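Practice record 12: protein with (2R)-2,3-dihydroxypropanoic acid.
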Amino acid sequence: MSDKPRVFVTRTIPKAGLDRLREVCEVEVWPKPKPPRRDTLLDKARGCAGLVTMLSDKVDETVLTAAGDDLKVVANYAVGYNNIDVAACREHGVAVGNTPDVLTDATADVAVLLMLAAARSFTPAAASVRDGGWKTWAPMDHLGMELAGKTVGVIGLGRIGRAFADRCHGGWGMKVLYTANSPKPDADRDLGAKHVELPELLANSDFISLHCPLTEATAGLIDANALHQMKTTAVLVNTARGEVIDQDALHTALSGGKIFAAGLDVTTPEPLPTDSPLLELPNCVVLPHIGSATVHARSGMALMAADNVLAGLRGDPLPHGV
Ligand code: DGY
């Protein structure tokens, strides 16, 4: 048995990160496409010094207790870390890391992709070509919304929210409203952005994009009441976390014409069951949580997670700690 510290990685991640870990650690990688079941995670965590976890792995008191006293670090392979009980980790003396920045552009791009796809009825339009529904050029079919000069509301102007706002302002000259814990003078100066309260953003935005973390305060933030305050022409985009939206209320709003369309990269649960009523709506585009799914972002995330683990094992502050 090796005397190297043991690290369990809950899914196959890019090789560069695994190679970096293997220089120092005994690494076990969960090889299957689906996450390890809860009992498997508890079993594999036992005696580990480090865990590399995905957003689908819940890391809580039970996992920490199962892992035992050797556990020094949990490196989440994501920028979001709502799957980790950070307070419990602190109590156990376990450092927690994430992977910010490297996925900012990739995720902001997917928000733009969804904004355009939802605004221009991409899903039903493309489907009509494949299924023969498209008979001839039609003056009244698939009429969508334009972006140029419109107002975009960004809920959460952190790194990804800002990159999304930059694209909207630079690409289409959109006016930017945003909510955030405090005003962002850079955004106000560079984009003419305006820090507002949520009701003002909801009522005045043509496009609304969610970029807030999932917390107690943001769970269910976009509920029936919030949807009711939006314009009937509004397009809602979510690349944050599915739980920020009340999906039943969203279905009611989309099917009843209370808002124009939605584009979701994240849902609850993930995957969305194939019989979910949301998937029957022509004005709802749903992607399988691909915000950070570029070669560049995922490779960078792997290296960052590895660096977090290695620092945690040495007892150093994590380079990307939360
Ligand atoms: C994240 O990093 O939090 C994304 O949701 C997944 O890459």
